[in-house]
Structure formats: C-alpha cells, structure tokens
From TrEMBL:
<dbReference type="InterPro" id="IPR050482">
    <property type="entry name" value="Sensor_HK_TwoCompSys"/>
</dbReference>
<dbReference type="GO" id="GO:0016301">
    <property type="term" value="F:kinase activity"/>
</dbReference>
<feature type="coiled-coil region">
    <location>
        <begin position="278"/>
        <end position="314"/>
    </location>
</feature>
<dbReference type="InterPro" id="IPR036890">
    <property type="entry name" value="HATPase_C_sf"/>
</dbReference>
<feature type="domain" description="Histidine kinase">
    <location>
        <begin position="424"/>
        <end position="512"/>
    </location>
</feature>
<dbReference type="InterPro" id="IPR029016">
    <property type="entry name" value="GAF-like_dom_sf"/>
</dbReference>
<keyword id="KW-0418">Kinase</keyword>
<dbReference type="InterPro" id="IPR005467">
    <property type="entry name" value="His_kinase_dom"/>
</dbReference>
<keyword id="KW-0175">Coiled coil</keyword>
<dbReference type="Pfam" id="PF07730">
    <property type="entry name" value="HisKA_3"/>
</dbReference>
<dbReference type="InterPro" id="IPR003018">
    <property type="entry name" value="GAF"/>
</dbReference>
<dbReference type="InterPro" id="IPR003594">
    <property type="entry name" value="HATPase_dom"/>
</dbReference>
<dbReference type="Pfam" id="PF02518">
    <property type="entry name" value="HATPase_c"/>
</dbReference>
<dbReference type="InterPro" id="IPR011712">
    <property type="entry name" value="Sig_transdc_His_kin_sub3_dim/P"/>
</dbReference>
<protein>
    <submittedName>
        <fullName>GAF domain-containing sensor histidine kinase</fullName>
    </submittedName>
</protein>
<keyword id="KW-0902">Two-component regulatory system</keyword>
<keyword id="KW-0808">Transferase</keyword>
Amino acid sequence: MNDRKENLESKNSDYLGIIAVKSASLLNFYQCSACRKWPLPNLLRTIVGETVIEKPTYYDSSRISDSGQLIYGKGHYFPIRDKAEVVREIVKIRTNFSDLLAAQQKLQQERDHAATKQIKLLETIAQVANLLLQASDYTSVLPHVVRLLGETVGSHRCGLSQILIVPASGKRMVRAVAEWCQPGVSTSIECTPDLELGLPTEIFADLGVQILYGEIVNVLIADLQPPVRDVFVGQGNTSMLLVPIMMQEDCWGVISFDNCGAPRLFDTAEIAILRIAADSITAAIERQQQEKALLQAEQEKQAAIQAKQSAILEERNRMAREIHDVLAQAFTGVVVNLEAAKMITPQDAPLQPLLTQAQDLARAGLVEARRSVWSLRPQALENNNLRSALEQLLQALIHNTLIQIHLQIQGIECAITPEVETHLLRIAQEAINNALTHAQASTIQIELTFGTQKVELCVRDDGQGFEPMAVRGHGFGLISMQERADCINGEFTLTSQPGCGTMVLITAPLSAKSNAPIRRS
C-alpha cells in the first residue's frame, strides 16, 4: 500500500487516501473512521468494482480563491482488485490543476502578445499607406517602406524586387529595387550580385511560378530543392516569406521577409496584414501610372492644339502675303495709274469726276487690303510687345473717328508667351471693332494689368449695350473671343446691359518663364 501511495503522489494529482477493504460487511466497512469521511454512495459503487469520477466543483482556471490557490474538484474513486477480481482497496484522488492553470496563463500571454504584435503591424501598414499616398513618386519612399515593414515583423532582411520582361527575349528577370537589413546582415545584392541588374526567374523554379500566379510563399529554406535553395542559403536565409505585388492579373514584383537566424514561419494573421501592404504598393503604382497617362494625354492634347494653331497662323500668314503681294500691289498700281490719268486729263473734262471716283474706290480697296493683312498677320507683335501692339492697333482703328480711346497699363510689365500675346491682341481688336461698329460709343477704355502669375485685359465702352443672352450662339465675334480665351486657358467674361455699355474681360496665365520684368517701351 505504501508503494502505491508513493506512485500516486508522484503523478500529476493530489493523493487523498487509500482504504483496505477487509470486512465483508458493508455496514462495518463504512463505520470505520477512514470511510466515514467519504460519501457512502461512491464507496458502495466502488466496492462492487465501479470506477466513480465526480464532477469537479470548479474547472475555470481564471477563478482563484482568496488565498491565491485554484479551487480543486471533488475526488475520483478507483477499485483495486486481487487476482480473484475481488476489490481489496479503494483509492481516492483528485486532479491537480496547477499545470493546466500555468498552461492556460501561458496561452493567454501568447494571445495577448500576438494581438499586440498584430496591432503594431496594422499601425505600420497604415503608416506605409500614408507614405505612399503622399509621395508624388512612390519609388522615393520604398526604402522607408521596407525598413518599416522589416523592423515591425522582426525579420533580418526586408526587400522589394521588381519583375521585368526583357523585350528582346520575352524572359522575366527579378531586379532588386529597395532593401533594408539589420546591422551585421549582408544585403541580397552583396550575396547575389546579379540581383542588381536582374536574375532570371527560371532560377527560382516552382517558387517563381507560385509568385507569378500571385501565391504567397511561406517556406523553410531547408525544404527547398536546388538550385533555388542554394541561392537563398548563399544569402544566409533559414526561412522566408514572399508576398507578391499584383497588378490586375500580372505580378509586378514581390516583398521578401528573410530570417537569417532561427527559422520561423509567419502565421495566417501576419500574412493577411502583409498582403495589405502589398496592395498599398499596388495602389500607389497604379495611381502614378494613371497620373502619368493623364499628363501624357494632356501634353499630347496641348501639342495638338499648338500644332493646329501653328497651322492656322501659317495659313493666315500665307493669305496675308498673297493679299499684300497681289491685291495691295494691284490697288497701288491702279491708284498710281489713275493719278497719272487725272494729270493728263483736262480739269473741266467730263471724265475727271469719274477718274476721281475710281481713284477713291482704289484707295479704299487698298486700305481694306492693308487692314486684312494686319488682321491676318499681327506684324505689330513681331518686333514689339503687347502694349506697343495695342497702341498701333488703336491708331489704325480710330483714324478719322471722333471716338475717344484710352489705354492704361497697370502693374510691372512681364514677358508673355507669343501665343498669349496673339490671342489677347485679337480679343482686344474684336472688342474694339464691336464698340466702333455696333455700340455707338463715344469713349472706349482699355486696361492691361500685369500680375505675378496672370495678365488681365479689359475693354470697356459707354455705348448702347445689349442683352448677352439674346445674342448667345449667334455672334461670331463673341464666339471667337471665347474660343481664343480657351486656347490660352483664360477666363472670359462678358458684361453688358441695354443702355449701360459693354465690358469684355479676359484673364490669362503667364508662362512659367515669363516672370522677369522687362523694360517699358
């Protein structure tokens, strides 16, 4: 009995007692002092050979008594038989929950640690996403991204590689883009120099195929086969996690987390969070590609507009040359010949009035031809600035008229791109022509205002005015002014009211290289 007592005490349980069954009488057996402390029903069931296991009064490891000890359950009763299968002893024990409590506490600590680690990793992912979102060029923040990820997960090395396609052969190459290492750990390029220019994906065998199909690889290096195992062993890796960066259906690259010490595999929660980091990089790449495409489209649009404007200006110049060389020269010849005819014709001859009338018509045609040339080709801008061109325009338009016209310059004059100058001059010409032709104005006020980033042209008259809505879509001159404003990204404003005159206001940006003040003429 003593031997059995020692064996019971050595187990992970509390020994409560052992009773020898000597009396055949159950009543005499229960009346012994040792048995009266134990429940009779349990003893009776055990005597006849049944093992009785009582439910514990409490099993939750988190519930501790005031003394700090776990409240144990009740006893378990076991019959001990002889060779004849007669019960000779009854053993009562109860389970010791101390080890279970310690295990549960350790498990809870591990859960708390894992939760804290996941929260920290999520905070890092948020920081990574913010870096990528704020960067105008995502490549500039990739070194910070791999450092944050590597430090947070505790890897010895964290790198980002891009998968490129060689145009000539169509083969895929892996090239290192950014990498972070713990102190004393060599970079992957130091271990595998070909990664700097590109390493064929065929070297990575099935591992490379998994990555290309977007599968995450969480692997122990010892489980790999040569030659891919040799590559990673040469880098000092014992385990690694590879998270692909997918662009729709194609693999753009991969984030690698290398362990060079004791090998470890990442759990499911860590992998899911690190997948978010890869998706954030994908979003940054796609956003930058879209911005680049929009910029290129805008540049192509501006180039097409400039080509169209150049073609229009070239055609206008051609027409101006034709008018100048043909019509203007012809009218000049007619005027000269008519003057000669008048000189040889007697003053009182009936032909003299006809010659005078013909000469006046020829001079009028010459004036119109010259005006057409000026309209088609603003020669005033070829050797002068916008202010001088406006002054020449005013002198030409108000010649032999009674209208008062004033030009006012405000701000420091800045160089303006030729395209902006041409359109502003044309808008001013159209607005002044409208005032002279339709407004019946007595005064026209022109203001040219230079700012640090924009130039503003305002043409105001005191004529009869009109209702803008009544002529919308019908006046070619108004449509032309609006289109010219659009060509230079300007803002066009037309203000008019019957009996209150008209104001045309155009605000256009200066060129990025036109901020330097220039001399006044």
